[in-house]
Amino acid sequence: MLKYFLYYLLLINLISLSLCWYDKRAAIRQKWRIKESTLLLSAALGGSVGFYAGMKAFRHKTKHLKFTVLVPLLIVLQSAGLIWFFFFKNA
Question: What is the pTM of this model?
Answer without folding.
Answer: 0.92
